[in-house]
Structure prediction request, 419 residues.
Amino acid sequence: MIVRLVALALALAASAATMRAQEVDRTLPSQLSAPTRATLERLIDSARVTGLPVDPLYSKVREGVFRGADEPRVLAAVQRLTRDLGDARSALGDSAGGEEIAAGANALRAGLHPADLSRLRESRGRRPDHPLTVALVVLADLATRGVPPAMAAASVNELVARNVSDGSLLSFRQNVERDLVGGRSAAAALDARTRAMIDERRP
Amino acid sequence: MSEPDDPRWLDEVAGELRREVTVRPAWRARLLDDVARAARPSARDMVDDPFGDDERALDNGPRRWSITVRPVAGLAAASLLVALGAGVMYMAMGSRSGANPSQRVAQVRSSTASPQLVSRAPAATDREVVRFELSAPRASHVALVGSFNEWNPVATPLSRDPASGKWVVSLRLPPGRHVYAFVVDGDVTADPSAPRAADDDFGSPSSVVLVSSPGT
Prediction:
């Protein structure tokens, strides 16, 4: 009977661990060589020790393996992401959450400066509990689509300072994208869409 | 009896064994009386054989199940179950709240963004149903890869929606920022209708989906 109870307990523990693992698989792919895995583990452990989110690093490794990148390239990508995560955390402040830091790192990668992220944090003003994740995602997207980063930062900054909702920020991104696809210049699209959104909020 | 190498030896032995043994009628009657008077196995007899392996337990009415647990072994089993329960609760709470509440992302409400939040998950879980769709009329196979499925190209295939002709799949995703891409007949492509991720370290861009956390 005891044996059966222990077996049941172990089975339940295994299934619970599997449920957890489905969300975040914090293992390194076996396709990588042992030396590369060891280097990555050291890198990720050091990120963890400094309080950076490590899930994006594991995801980056798996993405590299999926895309058939060679090991030096995977290592370089993880090193760069680690550096960007650290810079984003410095710019956004110690209270920034993991998702904000990851989105901030992505914005830096798109060409934004750490100072742009810091200004965004200041613009958030009296809503320190409101994450900047969506604003940072929108910023990175605009910069990736060819909008000059400084110009994108100025517009998003203005909207965040006026407490524009996350949903409105996403609509703003879509509208700008539509304008760009339609042939409008980035400056004209940003200016028009920013003004329209501010006008919408006037009583 | 003949020698063992004699061919008739086996027949002689078999014949001897087949011969009926005579039992005195008085002995037979006494034996049957004893069997008839014999008591049925008690519950205590069954406890010693809780899983019914003993022949005594087989043909005596409904089977009784009882368990005897030695104190030390019982204490160990109870401790193990309590620890397991605590572990499961911890993991469940960890997946709901995360290590840091501030890590939760903002709620995304957009009726036009794609992929969009198509429905709210049941209260028992903090996952949201997110619908991914792609217009690729000439594709023969489309799959979804991303941080939520370990970039596994066989984990999440899309199916063609007969009504719209688009490739679609709905997933329950935990709150957070997820990076993903489509695999269209082997080629990796970003979602044309979603925000892009800038970190195209491996040659082609990816997309971003933000999943809100309930209550935010």
